[in-house]
Write a structure and sequence with these properties.
With 469 residues, the protein is α/β, with parallel strands linked by helices. The protein has helices spanning 5-18, 127-130, 140-154, 174-190, 209-224, 242-249, 257-265, 272-282, 285-296, 299-305, 327-334, 363-375, 390-396, 398-410, 437-448, 450-459, 461-468; strands at residues 59-64, 68-69, 73-74, 78-87, 93-102, 110-115, 158-162, 201-207, 229-236, 350-355, 380-385, 418-422. A hairpin with a 3-residue loop joins strand 2 (68-69) and strand 3. Helix 1 packs parallel to helix 3 (140-154) and helix 1 runs antiparallel to helix 15. The structure holds 2-acetamido-2-deoxy-beta-D-glucopyranose (NAG).
């Protein structure tokens, strides 16, 4: 639900060259990949006995880690991972991990919480695994979004990136992701080794799948974690309505996100108790194969495995079009609509941005969410990008997103609701100041070469995958 593959791979290459300011040279000898263990076998991910009695956000264990771009190019930052207690949909205790990147000369009164779009329901796609030096790169969207994290690091922000899908990698359930983000912020705040001041300011950021987590964190924060010193939220390409998103994605190049979301919503930490028995009743053997793939693979594999397929087809489940009207499904969908309840309105300044012609996540649903929030006295800046689609907008909007983060920390965002439309589709390399110009120039350079590959991807994703991987 974020960058298309061609874009990801191109940006990855561009990024390897671009981020020399925060990455050091390639290691002289190859890193033994066996030293990094996957979440299923790494004991660090297992919470200690009795953790359920701890308050949400409590740090259960910690470690120092080496982090790297694409598992390969070490980042010259101090990095830690925290296992912390968070909450499942049914209110029970679960534990997940956040990865913290602290740059040299970090501002100590603040941090950014970055929800990366891993968009998958397999534990090997957890960002905490992929960020580690020597880790195999399963979750390519997160790998590329590390470039965006690197921009924040270059600006002096400590960044925390939580595994907000929780211990069973549940992609889709917004409330789970929202609590994962908020408890991750609590864990960072209490982690003394960072040297942060008491109750540091925080801004939450995320695009696409990362905006499910960020938008829900923004929605739940006033009630779930009101003590946090929240200064703002930045959410772009927001899948605010799962029903609308489902119809838009079905039978397209991005349909592969749907089996992943069905698996995610059916995890024990999500709606498994209600949803699993129902899905087992209606799923066909072919459909089950797709779910098995989604439960064991990351987004890129999921997309090619379910390319232009439909979850409404009776080869996938026996109810066909009627499946969505089942009361169990309806109840889950209803609980996953952002902007549906007045008492779940963000109170910190919120920047929402979206491409008018977003081909992956419907613009109209995000607009509706903003209209509801604004009718309930929220403080929202809505920017509509008139040209460009889902992936382009993630890049083009970077200067706007970063400016909003800086204004939010400074307390200089406008009050009330404002809306504007941006007509241009070119990233301004000077928008963030001369120091970052080289990074942004590389991003633009990448973008201009993408259009061609992108259309090829739509026609034949497997061929593009093969030439790019
Ligand atoms: C979500 O989208 C569906 C389908 O477009 C629509 O029927 C429903 O009313 C929407 N829900 C909200 C809360 O906007």
């Amino acid at each position: 639900m974020a960058l298309s593959l061609a874009r990801m791979m191109r940006l990855a290459l561009v990024g390897m060259v671009a981020f020399t300011s925060v990455t050091s040279a390639l290691p002289a000898s190859p890193i033994p990949r066996s030293t990094v263990q996957a979440p299923d076998t790494d004991p660090f991910y297992q919470p200690p006995a009795g953790f359920a009695s701890k308050a949400p956000g409590t740090v259960l264990s910690q470690r120092k880690v080496d982090v790297a771009f694409f598992g390969l190019i070490p980042l010259d930052v101090e990095a830690y991972q925290l296992l912390y207690r968070t909450t499942a949909i049914d209110g029970s205790a679960i534990a997940t991990v956040t990865t913290i990147f602290k740059p040299k000369n970090a501002k100590l009164d603040r941090f950014v919480s970055f929800a990366t779009a891993y968009d998958s329901s397999a534990t090997k796609c957890q960002p905490s695994y992929g960020y580690q030096l020597g880790s195999p790169q399963n979750s390519l969207i997160s790998s590329v979004e590390l470039l965006v994290i690197e921009i924040y690091l270059a600006l002096g922000y400590t960044v925390a990136s939580p595994d907000y899908e929780g211990p069973d990698a549940a992609f889709g359930p917004g409330r789970l992701a929202g609590m994962g983000v908020l408890d991750g912020m609590r864990a960072v705040k209490s982690f003394k080794s960072l040297g942060l001041t008491d109750n540091p300011m925080v801004v939450g950021v995320g695009y696409s799948g990362g905006a499910i987590a960020t938008g829900w964190a923004a929605s739940l924060q006033p009630k779930y974690a009101s003590e946090l010193n929240l200064k703002g939220w930045v959410q772009g390409g927001t899948p605010s309505n799962v029903t609308g998103t489902m119809y838009q994605l079905d039978n397209t190049a991005f349909s592969g996100f749907l089996p992943a979301a069905i698996v995610g919503l059916s995890q024990p930490s999500a709606y498994g108790a209600e949803l699993s028995p129902f899905i087992s009743k209606i799923i066909t053997p072919e459909g089950q194969k797709s779910l098995d793939t989604a439960a064991s693979e990351c987004a890129t594999t999921d997309l090619s495995a379910f390319f232009e397929k439909s979850i409404f087809d009776t080869s996938f489940q026996t109810l066909g079009d009627a499946f969505i009207f089942d009361p169990t499904i309806q109840s889950v969908l209803k609980q996953n609509s952002m902007g549906a309840n007045k008492d779940e309105t963000p109170t910190a300044p919120t920047f929402v941005y979206h491409a008018k012609k977003d081909e992956v996540i419907p613009y109209a649903d995000a607009k509706k969410m903003v209209d509801s929030w604004c009718s309930w006295d929220a403080n929202v800046k809505l920017t509509t990008y008139a040209s460009g689609g889902h992936a382009t907008t993630e890049i083009i909007a970077i200067p706007d997103a970063i400016n909003f983060v800086q204004n939010a920390f400074a307390g200089t965002t406008k009050s009330g609701c404002t809306a504007n439309t941006e007509l241009g589709s070119v990233l301004n390399p000077l928008a963030l100041g001369v120091e970052l110009e080289p990074i942004l120039v590389k991003l633009i350079d990448g973008l201009f070469h993408l259009g061609d590959q992108d259309s090829k991807f739509k026609a034949d994703p497997v061929a593009v995958l093969k030439t790019n991987l």
